[in-house]
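> call design_seq(struct)
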């Protein structure tokens, strides 16, 4: 969410009515999330000036660990230097820390492509935004899910119930530090996740949604202490419930 919002912001800056705007003091502390959107808190160090040049050798974009040769335009300006400077700063301050860690396994190669392409400045802001929107579409639609055996049949579902909240086993990346709370596209995906966790015996799906509209599911190491909840469904492994009375 943070990276996509940042890319949308940089897309606007690259195509603003004033021309391509560069953020000269590009640091994470200069941004804040407001209602799910990333905004710049300080525009004092923004500029529409693009570096003047006489030849291509005048247009090297230097960073502490990398340098990029750019073209000198017929008008005597380094082509796209403001856009590229913003994009590489987004790569080194945001993408490298946030992109590789929390996506479903099937989407990680696509995010790795974005990471590599922006790190080498092979993508401009237009290509980067399209790549992010493709990943978001796959994530929201569930099209990233590979065909696999149907596992939900191995679970008993109880509508209108959930387990008592409390600390349980933890997983990564969890929305809660007290247990294992993950976003899912469907109960079938949740069943696959539960099967992949050795501790998991049940999971609860509620009407809570993430910013992408996906449901939140809480994965549990037990299924005892059920309490009524009209907005929840608890799914219990048949193997865990064998010999017990529900």
């Amino acid at each position: 969410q943070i990276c996509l919002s940042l890319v949308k912001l940089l897309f606007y800056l690259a195509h603003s009515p004033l021309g391509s705007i560069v953020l000269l003091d590009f640091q994470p502390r200069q941004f804040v999330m407001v209602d799910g959107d990333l905004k710049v808190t300080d525009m004092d160090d923004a500029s529409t000036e693009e570096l003047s040049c006489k030849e291509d050798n005048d247009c090297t974009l230097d960073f502490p660990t990398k340098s990029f040769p750019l073209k000198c335009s017929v008008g005597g300006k380094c082509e796209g230097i403001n856009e590229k400077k913003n994009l590489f700063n987004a790569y080194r301050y945001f993408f490298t820390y946030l992109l590789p860690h929390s996506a479903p396994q099937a989407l990680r190669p696509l995010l790795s492509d974005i990471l590599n392409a922006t790190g080498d400045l092979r993508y401009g802001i237009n290509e980067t935004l399209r790549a992010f929107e493709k990943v978001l579409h796959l994530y929201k639609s569930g099209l990233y899910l590979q065909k696999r055996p149907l596992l939900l049949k191995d679970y008993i579902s109880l509508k209108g119930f959930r387990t008592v909240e409390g600390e349980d086993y933890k997983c990564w990346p969890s929305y809660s530090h007290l247990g294992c709370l993950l976003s899912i596209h469907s109960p079938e995906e949740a069943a696959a996740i539960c099967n992949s966790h050795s501790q998991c015996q049940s999971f609860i799906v509620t009407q809570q949604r993430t910013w992408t509209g996906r449901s939140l599911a809480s994965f549990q190491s037990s299924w005892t202490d059920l309490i009524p909840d009209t907005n929840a469904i608890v799914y219990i492994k048949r193997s865990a419930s064998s010999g017990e009375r529900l």
